[in-house]
Structure formats: structure tokens, C-alpha cells
Amino acid sequence: MSEKLLEVKDLKKYFKVGNGRFLHAVDGVNLEIPEGKTLGVVGESGCGKSTLGRVVMGLLPATSGEIHFDGQDIVKCSKREFKEVRKKVQMIFQDPYSSLDPRMSIYELIAEPLIQNHVCANRAEILDRVQKLMDTVGLAQRYINSYPHELDGGLRQRVGLARAMAVSPKFIVCDEPVSALDVSIQAQVINMFEDLQNQLGVAYLFIAHDLLVVQHISNRIAVMYLGHVVELADANELMSDPKHPYTQSLLSAVPIPDPKTARKKNRIVLEGDVPSPLNMPSGCPFRTRCRYATEQCAMERPELTDRGGGHMVACWNK
Asked: How many angstroms separate the CA atoms of 285 and 171, rounded?
């Protein structure tokens, strides 16, 4: 396995909401991503996926825990040190319609990180670099003087990726980068991510709802529920042999295009509502919806344990 590029240890992010209460968005997460690999993160809306990505990126301060990037703890580093780290860590946002400044041309959008980080010596060098980045992400040169509203969602997301790649990062946080796109365009963008990874060796934290998309692009997948990672395994193994009851339920909901096969599929429907992160249940966060819950589940939260071959599960009964 490649050397660890990113390592997250017991990471927590709490939001104060008044009356002395805290919303536990990310609660004790442990993850690692080797160089040139992809870790997919899946889970229901509100489980803490995007917050995790923003804390790793440095857009939100961590409440506690450690984030080691390239051997450096970026939670404790100075502003000057973090500015250097930020050149190696970039982010692609979910909505290509709101993440780009509508007043800036495609050239200006891609050139901005080059100018801010003093990557190029002069305007001619900036133009040459912008054109090469557009070629890299499959964006035709004719769009260089266009504005975001003149492009469709897939092309806008390519602009976002070109911006992220401008400073030659080693790691990119992808926060649901294809969820706002049509299925046909999703495939093009996913293939582009993979091609860039093969060419440049960039690592991804890939956050998404679609399990099939995550399986396709990821080496390993982490399943989150109410701020906790409940299962972590190699992508194909997790899809073929899910062990946590929550993961089993998620996979049972994945649509199957063949009607006959779909009718034979055993759909696992969870009972009850997702608990509020302001009022978390004792013990296992999933126990209030779990058909295997016991008294032990209510008393103590299970830790991620290796069930063989790096397949990590946080469950007392599985």
C-alpha cells in the first residue's frame, strides 16, 4: 500500500446552537488515505459527510482531534504553515452553479489560484497554464472567454476541477461533485476524475450519496451515520459483503435496472426517524433503528474493529 497522505485521528466537530447545547456533526472519526488513492464517504443527508470534508480542507476549524497531511498536523500548524499546505489540498464543491463567480470569465476563474499563489511569472505564462489546464480536464479552448452561465453543469464542474488542479495539489476533497449533474454527464465527469488520478497521482476524498458511483471510483468506502463511521472496507468487499445493519439497509435501497431481479431483492426498511444530533441516543447511535439492538447497544458505543482484511465495523452484534 502507498504511503499515507492523509490521516485523521479522533476528529470531532461540534456546533454550538445555544442554551449550552452542541450539535455533534462529526464525532470521533478515524480515517486514512494513501497517496494516489480514493476514499469514498457515503451516508444519509445530515450524517456529517460534508462537514468532515470541510474540516479536513480547513474551511471549518476542528473541535478536537488530529489531521495529519503529508506528515504535518494541520490542526496545530501556524497560519503561514497552513497557507503552504493549502496549495497541496483543494476542494470541488457540490453545486457547479453557485461555486463559480458569475462575474468572472472561465480564464479569470482558472487563473485566480495561479495569481493568488504566485505560480506563474507573467501573464503569458498564466495564459499558457490556463490553456493546458483546460486541455487536461477536457474543456474546449473556445470557452476561455465565456462566463459560467453560458456553460452546462458538466462543463462548469470541469472548470471547478481545473481551478482545483491549478496549483498541482496532492489531495482533493470532492463534495458530491456529480449529484447535481445528469446521469450521462456524471459518467463523463467520473471518468475524468479517474484519468487525472492515473496521470497525476492525486488522492481524493470523494463524498457522495450514490453508492454505485462511489464504488466505481473508490479504493475504500467509509459509511457514516450521525457523525460516526460505522463501517470501513475495500469498495468491492463492502458492496458484496456489508456487515453493519445500516450499510445493509443502504445497499438494499440501491436501484436495480432489471425488474425481475429487483422484485426478488430483499429490501431492508429502517423503522423510525433519524435521531437529532442535538439529542444523540446513548451507546450505539444506530440502535434506535436497528433490528439487532440489545441492552449492550444502549449502554456502550461500539468502536471500529477489524473483522479481517481491514474490514472495520462498529457493531456489537455483527
From this structure: 31
